[in-house]
Amino acid sequence: MLYHLYEFKKAAQWPAHVWSKATGIFLKHLPFKDEFFGRLLLASNEILERSTRSFGRPEFGIDTKTKAGQGVEILEKTIIDKPFCKIKQFIRFSTDGQIIGADEPNVLIVAPLSGHYTTLLRDTVDAMIADHNVYITDWQDASRVPLSEGRFDLQTYIDYLLDVIVRLGNGLHILAVCQSTVPVLAAVSILAKQKNSAQPASMILMGGPIDTRINPGVVCKFAKEHDLDWFRRNLVTDVPFGHLGYGRLVCPGFIMLSGFMSMNIDRHQEAQYNLFVNLVKNDIESADKQRAFYNEYRSVMDVPAEYYLDCIHHVFHDHSLPRGIMQWGGGLVDPALITKTALMTVEGERDDISNVGQTYAAHDLCSGIPQTRKRSYVQSEAGHYGIFNGKRWRTEIQPRIAVFIREFSGKD
């Protein structure tokens, strides 16, 4: 029923959206459009247009990169295609069409499956491309996956990772962001237990809920205060007719977006006001930055219900991984068995989603990794989004990750 109400709301808003688009075209041709009153009308109309817009799936749009003063062309290519996830590779070409970087470290970025499209990590990818061969998990909108493709739960997620890691081969480095840190740590633990030769050279866990019993924040407390049935009743619905995934149970992206925004509603309201003010002031550079952020932030997708509920159960209720009771394939998942994969954790001082200490908990769980192969870093002043996007990510965090990857490339 939730999804049907949302579709009705979109349909009801459509006339207002079309009207505001047409009005915007008209206003831009007025002779006084560059004067204060004209900018005021245009700004007011844009706020209306954006409030009634449905934000679709964004593109990465990374097609060029500069390295050592030379232009590099980037080709985005799907190399593994699964129903719920595509693995994309960013291939670099020199100006004369030659593939470059063959001897540089291979890095798989595992994006969170938490409502936003993988393009939320565009800045993460863009910063890593210069000196690494980058791959990324491009999760698919569950509303577009036919019911015939079956369920997708935490076990399926781990299975996907195991298959991808093995197919990408030895010497791989894995960078996991937010919620993906839990299945990544589980997958690497399983490979260590199997003594698989494809065990990654290193894993970087960033802002993830490895042990939510540590320093619990708003998200952890909310999850603990509600049982699994509450989440099932209130946040899970079926995909309506007209979508490829008709009949599939999902946690809709629009619900998850509401949850994200409600955590900092005053900040988001202030941001919208600031966008309006910047448009009136004709501060185009600031307005463009705000537009770009919210175009991405408001682009959301549906998450398979089985996976969403599994995360609540294993991460926030049972704490299965840190308590040593998580299972896969009939056996326990034990991070202590990891010995060959180097470990780095990254946290944000002001992270209000995965609070400081929750990711660092991986160091205690991975007791088999020598201290000489472990690193940790807490970025001052950074919130959750800031550890993988923006100035601090580019100038403080990513350079440290690059050094860590180089240090453990090619080592046993």
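^ that was protein a. below is b, sequence first then the tokens
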Amino acid sequence: MTAPLFLSGEEAAVERLRGLTGGVLDAIGGWAAASGPRSDIGREALAALVAGIDPCPEVGVEGDDVLATVLAHGVRTFDPHCVAHLHSPTLLASAAAELAIGASNQSMDSYDQAPAATMVEDHLVRWLAGVVGFPPGATGVLTAGGTASNLLALLLARDHAGASSVAADGLPPEAARWRIVASAAAHFSVQRAAAVLGLGHRAVVAVPTEPDGRIDVAALDRTLAVLDDRVIAVVGTAGTTDAGAIDPLDALADRAAALGAWFHVDAAVGGAFCLSKRLRGLVAGIERADSVTTDLHKLWWQPIGASVLLVRDPESLATLRHPSDYLDRPEDDELNLVSRSLDTSRRFDALKILVGLRSTGRRQLAAMLEHLVDLTTAAAELIDAHPELELLVPPSTVTVLFRCRGADDANIRIQRALFDSGRAIVGRTRHDGRVALKLTLVNPQISRADLASLLDLIVSETELVP
């Protein structure tokens, strides 16, 4: 008898899925039990291993070790020496819910494809809008990531500037002088969005930052005073990629209001701080935004991808709607989420978020966030006290910029050597023109002792690097 290929009401199909799931868990268990943040396999050996896998043989293969083989060389985000990026471990409840998302395969574009899922996502985004301080009625939509959320936000800003006619008629001649003002430390997705939207990346006016990475408000005012163009959007960043800095959002809200410009907050990192009474003040002013990006696959510990764009006024999404006879029919009185999204088919990612947040609870989520902010301060203290290390910026949130004393080349070789050997995955960037190392602390399981051990490992590598 041929094994079932698809899920159905038959017990044989459920049993096969159960068996396959067991195999997946065995592979995950082997991957998780290995030591270090990654294997020490080299790039050429890894490429050869992957090249030896036949993606689609003539006769299907089941029960082989391909899953375990590939996972064995993946990054272990839960390891205390994996601190390079905003790449977090995931809540187990959310990870388990991924199976239900894949097996049920709800498509989030129309109500008649996903009635319960549509209601769940709408309910979730309205709750998230309330968490950041938006008024009742505010809404949003889930996206694959912060880049997609920022693109959608700036599309709304562009359409708002053109009194919605842009969506129908394209950019007017005066759009050549439309500008988006943001910190020089804002995420590159702001410039990318400007390019995609036909404004060009040069439409983004980058304002200098303070030494701590926040936008320099005095420099902003000087920029606006001499800018002979129309500012259609002001973008605040709540958690810059390198320094973790949070812009003074209230001040930016004031400037945006005076200009009649759209105010967007890229809180891909910092949006989570709204969950904590203690940390909420870090993002004061976020509630005044027209739109907010927050990434749930960062400090909400969801599997990638899970971001959300929240909007104060649901009517601002109207320019996205393009009714169609087969999907978003104008005569139907249904909520079709395709009218809020740049995507058509989308995964039911709201399910994993809902399950993960409910199983963890706001109190524990807040405690984990507070632990990470405290841990970041502790990391800075350890670095500042070490004679071989140099702290570059006092930390604001969950990232620490530092370097080993010595040449740029030495810092590059240290970071690469640790990665290649599988002993540590540390971030590397540039600060004030110099190579910097970076700790990004998004794993609530890390302790101060783990940090001290990691810093000792980094320093020990300096003795081996000329």
